[in-house]
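Q: Given only this backbone (556 positions), what sequence would you predict?
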């Protein structure tokens, strides 16, 4: 796993000779509602073997890094004019349901009522940059984040997609640096971790906007580019770093980055980092920082699954102590609520009928030829297939997925944002946090694997309270998600097709019953020797018994 992880994020040790270690233990997944069940079945393990690992093990998924990537590629940074021109500033407050809630010690002292940036008495340079962005009033998420973080309190903030969370953590961090005036570039004072390269670049650009002409040096690090370019810039001075966990961990181990004075840490889309397997990396990264009693830590996301709650206990001040108060939990809107400006449409295209699905997709695209369509698919192969079919029909389309080089990924996203292409077919690399101005339609080809993913995907439209349309083409897959999807539609007062009620009832049964699981066993390692199949026990994929509901609901 270690070699795979580094490769995904561009560490220089692409080929590691030595022991190739597969994942020997195989377990079936829990039911969609956390239901426990009987395992069963035989499973191949991935064993241990010696040999050339080629940077990954045959028992694991190939790393998300294309072999034809240009090792000398370096992202062209937007100019000052481009940075401010690309800012989304018009927030439609009427289309966002606001139910601001704070829990923790002394929360009564924080003003979370509507207010303007002018009223916050921010540093003049920072305030000037905020005005250049066109920001005047705080969004509901910012009304919570700014006063709490300026008071150096730890914060967990759960807010809808497109609600201004990025500015919510960057502005108080930068204000802290400017007010104390102790930034010099030699030791990094602030760190923002994000799960994807694309989100890293977006946060980095936002940080540059707010830090313009302040003397604060902002750096970014992520995989897919030559580490030397990023390392050289960091060594010239880095007060604030925005990074993916893998590349930052590599730089810390090499001594490229010094976080010993880091007093402001942010985990953006933290639930996605957990799902991508970065938990241990986050532990190691935080070990390089000041201890949690001496730093301000913030965790931002649109969802807050149960496994994420354990992270707060590890990285944040959970309880009041003599040194400082425990963290504050903030919520902008009730759970399962998405921005009101997003119209959600669910259409049945038949059980995995590709022809019907493509005809339906083309119908929506043809009905709005000038609109921007972000089409989400489950696999890279599916992204390539749909891209080719639409391209053959003379549509302006590009794909965004992990098999593309970093340069190609950034170009595809930039072309879509600037309307050089009007259709972007993407895997979930584009589902988290990306701010795509005026994205009119999001289309899910098939129901996503979880309701959290659904909410994040459709949040690429209807940003900042604008209007948008989210279409899900149901093909019979991921039936277990339908009960939660039905709840989202009902809670947001969306039109529900008659067939969905019955399908959701059938989907609920998918969370019960016996399931088959992979067993323990030894298999071949990476180019090495190993033993054969073995029987084992695992938790069934649709286990029988009691379980927990979705990440938003209580037990079911």
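A: Predicted residues:
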């Amino acid at each position: 796993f270690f070699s795979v992880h580094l490769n995904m994020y561009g560490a220089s040790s692409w080929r590691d000779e030595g022991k190739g270690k597969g994942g020997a233990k195989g377990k079936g997944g829990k039911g969609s509602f956390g239901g426990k069940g009987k395992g069963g079945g035989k499973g191949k393990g991935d064993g241990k073997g010696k040999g050339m690992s080629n940077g990954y093990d045959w028992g694991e998924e190939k790393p998300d890094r294309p072999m034809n990537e240009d090792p000398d590629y370096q992202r062209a940074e937007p100019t000052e004019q481009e940075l401010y021109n690309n800012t989304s500033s018009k927030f439609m407050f009427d289309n966002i349901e606001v139910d601001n809630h704070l829990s923790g010690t002394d929360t009564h002292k924080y003003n979370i009522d509507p207010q303007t940036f002018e009223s916050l008495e921010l540093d003049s340079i920072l305030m000037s940059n905020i005005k250049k962005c066109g920001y005047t009033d705080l969004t509901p998420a910012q009304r919570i984040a700014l006063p709490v973080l300026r008071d150096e309190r730890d914060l967990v903030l759960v807010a809808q997609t497109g609600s201004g969370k990025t500015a919510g953590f960057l502005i108080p961090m930068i204000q802290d640096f400017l007010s104390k005036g102790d930034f010099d570039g030699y030791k990094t004072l602030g760190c923002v971790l994000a799960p994807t390269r694309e989100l890293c670049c977006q946060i980095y650009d936002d940080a540059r906007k707010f830090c313009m002409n302040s003397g604060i040096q902002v750096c970014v690090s992520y995989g897919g580019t030559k580490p030397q370019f990023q390392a050289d810039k960091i060594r010239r001075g880095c007060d604030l770093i925005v990074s993916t966990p893998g590349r930052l961990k590599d730089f810390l181990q090499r001594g490229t980055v010094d976080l010993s004075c880091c007093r402001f840490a942010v985990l953006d889309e933290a639930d996605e980092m957990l799902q991508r397997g970065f938990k241990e990396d986050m532990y190691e990264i935080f070990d390089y920082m000041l201890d949690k009693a001496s730093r301000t830590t913030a965790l931002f996301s649109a969802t807050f699954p149960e496994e994420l709650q354990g992270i707060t206990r590890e990285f944040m001040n959970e309880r009041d102590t003599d040194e400082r108060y425990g963290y504050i939990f903030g919520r902008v809107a009730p759970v399962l609520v998405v921005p009101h400006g997003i119209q959600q449409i669910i259409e049945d295209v038949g059980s995995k009928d590709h022809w019907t699905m493509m005809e339906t997709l083309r119908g929506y695209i043809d009905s709005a030829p000038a609109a921007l369509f972000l089409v989400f698919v489950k696999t890279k192969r599916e992204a390539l297939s749909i891209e080719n079919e639409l391209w053959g029909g003379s549509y302006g389309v590009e794909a965004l997925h992990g098999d593309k080089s970093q340069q190609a990924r950034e170009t595809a996203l930039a072309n879509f944002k600037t309307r050089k292409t009007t259709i972007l077919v993407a895997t979930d690399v584009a589902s988290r946090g990306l701010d795509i101005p005026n994205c009119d339609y999001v289309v899910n080809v098939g129901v996503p694997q979880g309701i959290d993913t659904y909410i994040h995907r459709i949040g690429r439209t209807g940003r900042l309270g604008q209007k948008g349309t989210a279409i899900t083409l149901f093909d019979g897959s991921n039936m277990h998600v339908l009960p939660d999807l039905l709840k989202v539609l009902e809670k947001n007062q969306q039109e529900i097709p008659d067939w969905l009620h019955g399908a959701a009832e059938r989907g609920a049964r998918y969370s019960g019953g016996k399931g088959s699981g992979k067993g323990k066993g030894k298999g071949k390692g990476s180019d090495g020797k190993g033993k054969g199949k073995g029987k084992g026990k695992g938790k069934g994929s649709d286990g029988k018994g009691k379980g927990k509901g979705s990440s938003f609901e209580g037990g079911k």
